[in-house]
Amino acid sequence: METSTARPLLDCSRGSVLIVDDELSLLEAVARYLGRQGYDVQTASNATDALAILAEGPVEVMLCDVGLPDMEGPDLVEAARAVVPDMRVLMFSGWHDQRVADRLFAAGAAAYVTKPMPLRELYDIVAKAVLERRNPFDSPGS
Question: Is 69 in contact with 101 (CB distance < 8 Å)?
Fold first, then answer.
C-alpha cells in the first residue's frame, strides 16, 4: 500500500492574517469567515493600528483595503513590508485602477483584487498566499 506525502495546493494549516479595512461590516464579516476556516485573525480599521499590530509580532498575510483614511495603499505596503519583510500583502479595492495596481505591485504587494468577491474565492487567495509565504521555493516564479 502506497501513501502520499504530497500536500494539496490550497490545504494549509492555520495561518496568521491581519485584515485592514475602514468598512467595519466588511472587516467583521471577512474576519469571522477566515476565523471559522482556522486562521488566527487580527483586524485593524486604519493603517496606524495595522502597523502597530505588525510591530507586536509576525503576520503571514495582510489583507488590506487600498483606500484607508490615514495612508495610501502603496505607502502602507512599503511600511508593512519594512516591518515584516516576508509577509504576503494582498490588497483589495472596490474599483480597479491599473495605475494603482502598478504602484501596489512596485511597492511589494502580492495581489490586487476587486471587492466584493465570494468569500470562498477570498479564502483561496489567502490560503495560496500563506502557502507561498511558508514555502517560497515552491512558488511559481521562484
Answer: no
